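User: what does the whole thing look like in 3D?
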Amino acid sequence: MVRRIVAARVDDAAMADDLVQETLVRVLAAAGRVDAGMLEPYAIATARNVVATAWRDRDRQRRNQHRVVDLDTPDPPDTELLASEERAAVAEALARLGDRDREALLAHEVSGRDTRSLAAELGSTPGAVAAQLHRARARLRVEYLLARDHTEPPTDRCRPVLLALSSGDRRRQREVEAGRHLLECDACAGLSQPLLDRAPPREDAVRIPVDGDGDVVAARQAARELAARLGCFSRTDLTLIATAVSEVTRNIVKFAGSGEVVVEVLEEPRTGVRVTARDTGPGIPDVERALQDGYSTYAGLGLGLPGARRLMDEFAIASEVGRGTTVTMTRWCGER
Amino acid sequence: MTGPRLVSILRQGSHLIASVHTALDDTQMTAFQHDLVDRIGRDRSRGVVIDVAALDVLDSFATRTLRTIAEVARLRGAVTVVVGIQPDVAFAMVSLGMDTGALHTALDLEEGLALLDRIAGGRRPAVGARGGPA
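Assistant: Here's the predicted 3D structure for the full assembly of 470 residues, as structure tokens:
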């Protein structure tokens, strides 16, 4: 009888067995205290309680899986407080999701419904449901971080950027200029850290934060290494790439003080490397002039930008006074 | 300076041999320039060989620093020869569009010393007659 009650509520056979055992243990332990005639209702009530407790535990565990930040054995005194804050943050984040997203997420993660049965119910396809769940999780992570820190994003652009980072969608990240935004927005730079840590380390890209002279060397060496791994560049090509990276990174140090350089491998339309050098410095008032040989605003050779352009196959510069400069340059394998 | 030496400057007769052992950042490059110019005065050197064979990149700043060293050394009465520029580095320097016409260069250390002996060996010469716009 106990088994029937439990099995009706739990579809996992192993879990049902465990719960039946636990119920029986409790009933036996209480047998001395309970009237013989009341033993049956007592067993039924106990079974229900045991199942409910098990669900709660499982809920909590499932939700824990979605925590972007794990609390690693904090001090015992504040454990409870932190846990309750966690719960509050998760609950708030869940509440901020759209109704459909929340229901789908809970049905899938908490009740253990698979995408196929959800799709059948919603008149959709498993793939579409999976995509919806993916988006909902990405949003949940962002909302959780915001709720945890009790902050609201300072600008309209923050949420889209954080969402793009959370979902790991690189095309979307480019569209919303995520890299640039993180340089500009301190709040997002802080919030995004756990999101970035989540992403598997990319084999095909490196990011070098630029803060000073030494990073010029670090950036060009990183670029050379990554490009060398492709195996299609000659030693001369690698030196050209490294020299170009050196020039654009130095510009960041000289004019903006800090920024970042991202070097990534391209597969489409051909194999190559793309270098993106980004800063939020003063910007270049006259880009055309800056691209002319010999134009220099400091005591340099004025070769930085025009020189780098000659060393690479493609070169683009976007600069806005007061907002910063982004140089994007690409070198393809097997050209020239 | 901490860690392994990035640069060594050795005296050989009336010449100085400066070897760069590893990639230098701009600050280190500038420090190297000052050290070398100091040594030229102290050692009353007539010739300086700068060996850059260990460098995998000579960008605009590094090139400018070499040119500055050569020009300052010339004003102090010494001839500078840069040796050991790797072929791919040379190619990159040309592509970058750097004007290095004022720099004396030689293939390696041996050639560099021979060149120094030719131009600085006899009398103190009027090197750098081509003057470079450093």
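In plain terms: Chain A is about 60% helix and 10% strand. The two ends of chain A are 81 Å apart (CA to CA).
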